[in-house]
Amino acid sequence: MFLCCWLALVALIPMTSGTNPGVEVKLTEKGLEYGRQLGMASIQQKLKTIKVPDISGSQEVSPIGKVKYSLSNMQIVDVGLPKSALDLVPGTGVRLSIGNAFIQLHGNWRVKYIKIIKDSGSFDLNVNDLTITTSIAIKSDETGRPVVSSVSCAATVGSASIKFHGGASWLYNLFKNFIDKALRNALQKQVRANQTLFLIITLPFWVVAKVDQYAEIEYSMVSSPTVSSSSIDFSLKGEFYNIGKHQEPPFSPAAFSLPPQVNNMLYIGVSVFTTNSAAFVYNTAGALSLYITDDMVSSPIRLNTRTFGAFIPQIARRFPGLMMKLLVKTVKSPVITFQPNNVTVQATGTVTAYAIQANTTLSPLFVLNLETSVSVQLFVSEMRLAGAVTLNKMDLTLGTSYVGEFQVKSLNSILQMVLKVVVIPKVNGEFLTLGKALFIKTVDKRHTWDSIPALLGEKPVFYPSTTPTNLPLSYYTTRYGDNSHVM
Ligand SMILES: *[C@@H]1O[C@H](CO)[C@@H](O)[C@H](O)[C@H]1NC(C)=O
Ligand SMILES: *[C@@H]1O[C@H](CO)[C@@H](O)[C@H](O)[C@H]1NC(C)=O
Ligand SMILES: *[C@@H]1O[C@H](CO)[C@@H](O)[C@H](O)[C@H]1NC(C)=O
């Protein structure tokens, strides 16, 4: 349930104040309205499962005297919630109002009077004009954990009518008024008691989500959400950590804010702090390395000592007829920067070349130092996040040679080709995977990336950032929003 996802995002998250967020999420009135539509279907389902408690009592009915009655096995047959509204309550949270709702119940009746007369049958109850109004506050409790609570809840039943079947029904229909009243009271109480349950779905504790074998992302809130008349704004930590150890990176988040627009349903701003914390984690875990083998370079150029021997004759001479393998790895955390529409990754690493001996032993040939910069232009293609990577720069210098002196420059074109054919697509893929992971874990862990556009109706849009420190991603829908941000 969309609403509950959002509310759950607020709940159960420890608070640390005084820190800038890594990720900002803005849920606008339009988003809330869309959430209401999805949420009502879920509430309707839940209402159907309400267990109505048995009712029993006694009543003086002339001319019979005292009548003992009981109503049991009550089942909700139908529920309708034709009118509902979800409004923002600035400074507090949200208010849900349900009007004109109806419930149809079927159950069994049983009466006993004049000591010996017993009778039973079934009945149908129609409750109309049910009104429920509840305000949900978003605050933090004394431990600094935000909680969602129902501050007020009012339920009233407009009218109820009951019809008895079986037994001497004609007789009981005479005194149905008081039973009607008893039922109405019971129902009113029940609806009220369960209000909080409808709205607060207790989800498992999820402040930290695993991204993959190396990283997890923490999206606790750094401050209480701000509720204004047009949106609810969440400031999330949005920090990647190595699994199992919370090592802080040598940098901290800078302040940033989302653009003031509220035309779309949902706005998400991701700061460079978040992406750089990911780079830090993966580099520290040694995960930013890649072995490149001949089969990965699907090109007429083969990754063997013959090819490299053309540039460095010693290789062909000393290692004739062998396949080669390259190890590309970072030596420090890559640095990610954002420009409007453009994410640039600067990496410092090494390229180690090996000849693969017949017995599979790797003989090192040389180590090159690599300084590179690639830019990713993000866009949305067929409702999916996509990126086009361009190589801005590739500087190679000799680190160590095991094959004597040679001109590094002579390897430029072949290594650039390898970078373009193998490394960059891989970086692109990883980047997008990370982006999706970040998005899903932040927004809603129960939906997959592919179902999110469907969930929200339309597609995600990246639009030019006005500040270089964040990467706003917004969801919009043509039903509610305008398309002016579409690139
Ligand atoms: C409704 O509330 C009552 C009392 O708190 C509880 O016993 C009952 O299980 C609730 N029903 C549902 C469907 O949650
Ligand atoms: C992206 O930014 C980098 C670094 O500033 C720059 O070199 C590159 O030309 C930019 N690319 C585009 C397509 O704007
Ligand atoms: C593998 O072959 C190379 C070259 O013939 C040799 O130098 C090396 O000792 C061999 N290694 C093993 C483990 O057999």
Describe the fold and architecture.
By secondary structure, this protein is of the alpha+beta class. The protein has a domain at 40-199: Bactericidal permeability-increasing protein, domain 1. It contains 9 helices and 21 strands. The strands form 4 sheets. The chain has a 6-stranded antiparallel sheet with strand order 10-11-1-13-21-20. The longest helix has 32 residues, at 412-443. Residues 1-17, 195-206 and 441-487 have low confidence and may be disordered. It binds 2-acetamido-2-deoxy-beta-D-glucopyranose (3 copies). Residues 357, 359, 361 line the site of one 2-acetamido-2-deoxy-beta-D-glucopyranose (NAG).
Quick take:
This protein is an alpha+beta fold and 487 residues long. The protein has helices at residues 2-10, 29-48, 169-172, 176-199, 272-284, 305-309, 313-318, 412-443, 451-456, and strands at 23-28, 55-61, 65-80, 83-89, 93-113, 117-140, 146-165, 208-210, 215-218, 226-227, 231-236, 239-242, 266-271, 289-293, 323-330, 335-339, 342-356, 362-381, 384-401, 460-462, 470-475.
Global mean pLDDT: 74
- Which overall shape is indicated by the principal axes computed on the Cα atoms? elongated
| Small molecules in complex | 2-acetamido-2-deoxy-beta-D-glucopyranose
Q: Main β-sheet, in a few words?
A: 6 strands, antiparallel
Main traits of this protein?
Bactericidal permeability-increasing protein, domain 1, secreted, antimicrobial, binds 2-acetamido-2-deoxy-beta-D-glucopyranose, 21 strands, disordered C terminus, 487 residues, disordered N terminus, six-stranded antiparallel β-sheet, Bactericidal_perm-incr_a/b_dom, elongated
